[in-house]
Amino acid sequence: MNRPALLAHATAVAIDGRGVLLTGGSGSGKSDLALRLIERGAILICDDCCDIVDGPDGPDIHARPSIAGQIEMRGVGILERHHVASAPLAMMLQLDRPPERMPDEDGRIALGGWSVPGFALAPFEVSAPLKVEALLRRTVDAGRYPMRLETSGYNRGVA
Predict the structure, then answer these.
(1) Helix (H, G, I), strand (E, B), or coil: what is residue 129?
(2) In this predicted model, what pLDDT tens digit does every residue of 55-114 receive, in sequence order?
């Protein structure tokens, strides 16, 4: 059954074709971290608003057409960047929660009707882009993927 898209207040990049969703409040570092990941080879999916859509193998992150290819650089303005229209959601990072020193490798975050591999991360640390890449690699190597939540209804909450 196709469910309507979930609007997420988030920024997303694709790393090796896998979508990484960066969540947090305004000023939490979503766009800043995304720009640093892009400089390391990630590709922008969307900034500020993303649609989470049920895909054939799990949730997909889709850019909203009205802002596709645009990302805000605080203090500079809106920049145009190469982007992809969508990517399968592989991992979610919460940037406005303090990270654990030794995070649970099986950490998951509920997002709509999905349980997504997820972690808290401090986005402004110099090593943050390296941590994102390491967490994604660990998640993929362990074969951890988003799983549908076993609920009778669909949670239309916003990330």
Answers:
(1) helix
(2) 888 999 999 999 999 999 988 999 999 999 999 999 999 999 888 888 777 889 999 889
**Cα 21-25-31 angle, rounded to 5 deg:** 55
Q: Is residue 18 part of a domain?
A: yes
> Could you give the 3-state DSSP secondary structure of residue 51?
strand
Select from 66, 68, 109, 67 the least CA-distant residue to 85.
68
How far out from the chain centre does Cα 94 lie? 9
Q: Is residue 33 in some structural domain?
A: yes
| CA separation for the pair 96, 87 (Å, rounded) | 24
Flag whether 103 is in a domain: yes
Q: Give, as one character, the DSSP assignment of residue 152.
A: S
Residue 79, domain CATH: 3.40.50.300
For residue 79, the one-letter residue type is L
**Interatomic CA distance for residues 73 and 88, integer angstroms:** 25
**Closest among 113, 117, 95, 103 to 37, alpha carbons compared:** 95
Q: Is the pTM of this model over 0.85?
A: yes
Report which secondary-structure segment, H or E, holds 29: none
Total tally of structural domains belonging to the chain: 1
Task: Note whether residue 156 is domain-resident.
Answer: no
